Amino acid sequence: MESFNTDDNESDIAFGGSANSVSSGTYIAPNAETGNWNDRFTDLRDCNQIIEKAESYVGDAAGVEVYVAEARFFRAYNLWRLMKRYNDVPLITKTLNVDSPELYDKRSSQATIEDFILSELEAIWSKLPLQKNVAAADKGRITQGAALALKARVALFAGTWAKYHGHRDDYAQLLNQAIVAAEAVRESGEYSIWEGLGDESYRYLFIEEGDDNSESILANRYAAEIRMHGTSHVAYWGDRSSPTKKLADMYLCKSTGLPITAPNSGFEGYAKMEDEFKNRDPRMTQTFLMPGVTFLNPQDAALVNSPLFNSRPNTKTGYKLWKFIGEARTVNGQTTYDCHIIRYPEVLLILAEATFEKDGAISDEILNNTINVIRSRKGVEMPPLTNAFVSANGLDMRTEIRRERTVELCFEGFRRDDLRRWKTAETELVQAIKGFKYTGTEYEEEGVLSATEAANVDADGFYIIEPASNRKFVAPKNYYYSLPLDETKLNPNLLPNNPGW
Please, which residues have CB within 8 angstroms of residue 452's CB and are 6 or more apart in sequence? Predict the structure, then answer.
């Protein structure tokens, strides 16, 4: 299963320790990709083996039905991971040996892979248990909700890729599949927005206190002395990601529900360090670590966050990331909080987006069942999104739906694939990567930047981390990833490579 990642560094809302070649468009074709290619086929072989063994099982077939359904889920899940990266991939549905001709098969089309994944998930979801019926000892096993939520995710990707890239002409029925699957999860009543820690619930959702919460549909689970990770310490050190100006600007003003660029939005400017964070969607200050805030961390107990770049958590943009900094005192590598792979808010966002992309409109009722449920989380409580509000303020509903998705799911690895499927990467990723406002602010008064660094500000005083001149996006090439070149040598029938590669 996927786990904690820094995939958003490949986009425009996060910046890692250095420039990212995928984000900047300078990525070159790799010779090998063990994690993205080899491991996926190892997992597919394991899945196929379980499925085949079950066919020759001499006991009660009903006794192993749920395990077969789990194996089919993971086969679909691994094919999804391959497809979203490489588009056309081999469809392997049986275990192979060294003499199998399928070793040299051509790639199946993206549409074929999409249809197979969706049909598999439709076939098996009802054979899996409801979340409420999973015994305590079996928590983390695959449920009906996980299968339906994955189906909704894949169908949204397929439908929007078809709509904007045209690899198939039936995008409406794909988006309808996303709607039906997401609505089934919603109507099940099995999941809800987690508010277990009051006003700080969104922040705590992603660390120790958020394990087994009411909105976690599929999680990669960890436990002390059994399976642990180092994400909490690395997040505290600031070595994973720094938020960018692009993300900071997306958070709406709380009093009005308007973007900061709108007239009379209520945005308080940049003069003082805390001004930018005032009157904003509270998810901003639960994701960004504001200067002057006292915070707990896994290594050094309580600290006051300094605006200095090299004061933990370190930053490259001037903005510091609070998300994923756990509060339990541990040795590095012994963090135990879970990685939430699919959360209930994502399903609600899928339902909203698929509805709008299919129909070109969305009712207030659906908005109230989706985006406004997310906004109503205790401690967030943002003004609702309505058609009248969008119209009265000259906003664009598609932009607002996409904004909500980006803000809610930031640093969970969705942004680049979203820009790819929306076909907006060619516009978004050629822009300079910028950070905080320096000129004319309290940051400048305190000399947070060196003289050399301070020279890298734009005409409006914002710190430039990577100028537009260092960034490019070639369409259609950069909407795709290259196949690992070593694989094309082993099997020339994988060629031609993806467009532009």
Answer: none
CA dihedral 286, 315, 406, 376 (to 10 degrees): 10
Separation CA 151–CA 215 (nearest Å): 17
Q: Which residue type occupies 194? A: W
CA atoms within a 13 Å half-sphere pointing along the CA-CB vector of 20:
23
**CA-CA distance, 43 to 63, in Å (whole number)?**
23
Q: DSSP letter string over 386-416? A: -HHHHHHTT--HHHHHHHHHHHHHTTSS-HH
Question: Which one, of 459, 464, 460, lies nearest residue 449 by Cα?
Answer: 464
Say if residue 282 is preceded by a cis peptide, omega within 30 of 0.
Answer: no
Residues of the chain above pLDDT 70, percent: 100
Task: Give the pLDDT of residue 76.
Answer: 98
Q: What are phi and psi of 406, to 5 degrees?
A: -65, -45
pLDDT computed for residue 239 by the predictor: 87
3-state secondary structure of 434: strand
SS3 content of the chain, % helix, strand, coil (to 5): 45, 10, 45
Positions of the chain with pLDDT under 70: none
Question: Which bin fits 312, alpha (ψ -120 to 50), beta or left (φ > 0)?
Answer: beta
Give 369: exposed, middle or buried? Use CB within 10 Å, 0-12, 13-18, 19+. middle
Residue 417, both tokens: 């694939």
pLDDT in tens, 454-499: 999 999 999 999 999 999 999 999 999 999 999 999 999 999 999 9
Strands 216-220 and 339-343: what pairing?
A: antiparallel
**pLDDT score recorded for residue 394:** 98
**How many angstroms separate the Cα of 436 from the Cα of each of 260, 273, 414?**
15, 10, 23
> CB–CB of 349/215 below 8 Å?
no
Asked if the bond preceding 259 is cis, omega within 30° of 0, the reply is no
Please, what is the average pLDDT of the chain? 97
Please name the residue that has the structure tokens 């094309």: 488
How far is Cα 231 from Cα 3, in angstroms, rounded to an integer?
Answer: 10
